[in-house]
């Protein structure tokens, strides 16, 4: 079998917390260009509707990546990476790393968790994560959406972005889009973690697979597809609202209604393919890495505590 074997002692909350943040950062490093392509496709119609200067038109996932490399250089695919890694260390650590602990609170220590307890745990950790990590998400989206060739760069660096947003839009500007982000992450967390949980449990209880890499891969891929399908409309609204200049939209609801009125219902699924490619691949890398990191850290802890 490839990878670490399951340990006799279940991983602690601290191991899950650190492991989730680390695994999410590794997944972000690998899939970040797909996320940037998704953001560019999601805000493309908005740019045209706002009547701003002409920018490159994007068509499809790989067409968007090719256009960005051609017009802005390869580094543009990693715009906002620093903020993205900051986000994952605070965001994923809470929403994924604390999921099992919160689930145990709702089940009151019962061995088998029902669907209701899993959904409640997913909503709780998702909302907690947004409250902690929202400023990093705002900065990440702003960096990914800015086009270097269109009248200069919006922000000169990650810290400059935090300072500029706070100065021009107030501290509340760093928490812009919190409502749609809470809604999105309640949906994403419930779909992603609960689907992964359910698929993995089903595979193990049916003896179709053992608790190893193929099982983790299959569960993660299924979770990525379900999450993209359900969360895409909220994700588009969240991205546009967080990226919008002050005064463009009065609220997230106004952003959604404007998008539907000017571009139609299909705008809700703009950037679906890069979203799926990104979420599918991100889920696979993150969950497989997370499972292995938990086992590796528990094995290392066991060897440290073992008597000589």
UniProtKB/TrEMBL annotation:
GO CC annotations on file: mitochondrial inner membrane
Keyword Membrane (UniProt): yes
PROSITE patterns: SOLCAR
One annotated GO biological process: transmembrane transport
UniProt superkingdom: Eukaryota
Predominant location category: mitochondrion
Keyword check for Transport: yes
Solcar repeat copies, ranges: 11-105, 113-202, 211-296
Protein's cellular compartments: Mitochondrion inner membrane
Family (UniProt): Belongs to the mitochondrial carrier (TC 2.A.29) family.
Listed name of the protein: Mitochondrial uncoupling protein 2 isoform X1
Organism of derivation: Alligator sinensis
């Amino acid at each position: 079998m490839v990878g670490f074997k399951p340990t006799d002692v279940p991983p602690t909350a601290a191991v899950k917390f650190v492991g989730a943040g680390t695994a999410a950062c590794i997944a972000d490093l690998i899939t970040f260009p797909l996320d940037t392509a998704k953001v560019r496709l999601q805000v493309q119609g908005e740019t045209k509707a706002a009547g701003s200067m002409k920018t490159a038109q994007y068509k499809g996932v790989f067409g968007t990546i090719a256009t960005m490399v051609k017009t802005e250089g390869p580094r543009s695919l990693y715009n906002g990476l620093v903020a993205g890694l900051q986000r994952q260390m605070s965001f994923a650590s809470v929403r994924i790393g604390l999921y099992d602990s919160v689930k145990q609170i709702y089940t009151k220590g019962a061995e088998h968790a029902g669907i209701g307890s899993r959904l409640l745990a997913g909503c709780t950790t998702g909302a907690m994560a947004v409250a902690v990590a929202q400023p990093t998400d705002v900065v990440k989206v702003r960096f990914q959406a800015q086009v270097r060739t269109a009248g200069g760069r919006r922000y000169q660096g990650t810290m400059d972005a935090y300072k500029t947003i706070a100065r021009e839009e107030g501290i509340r500007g760093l928490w812009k889009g919190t409502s749609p982000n809470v809604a999105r992450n309640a949906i994403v967390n419930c779909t992603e973690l609960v689907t992964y949980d359910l698929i993995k449990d089903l595979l193990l209880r049916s003896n179709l697979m053992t608790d190893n890499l193929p099982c983790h891969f299959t569960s993660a891929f299924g979770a990525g597809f379900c999450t993209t399908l359900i969360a895409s409309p909220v994700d588009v609204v969240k991205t546009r609202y967080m990226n919008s200049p002050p005064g463009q939209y009065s609220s997230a609801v106004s952003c959604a209604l404007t998008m539907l009125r000017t571009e139609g219902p299909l705008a809700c699924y703009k950037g679906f393919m890069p979203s799926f490619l990104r979420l599918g691949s991100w889920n696979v890398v993150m969950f497989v890495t997370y499972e292995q990191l938990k086992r590796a850290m528990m094995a290392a802890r066991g060897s440290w505590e073992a008597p000589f």
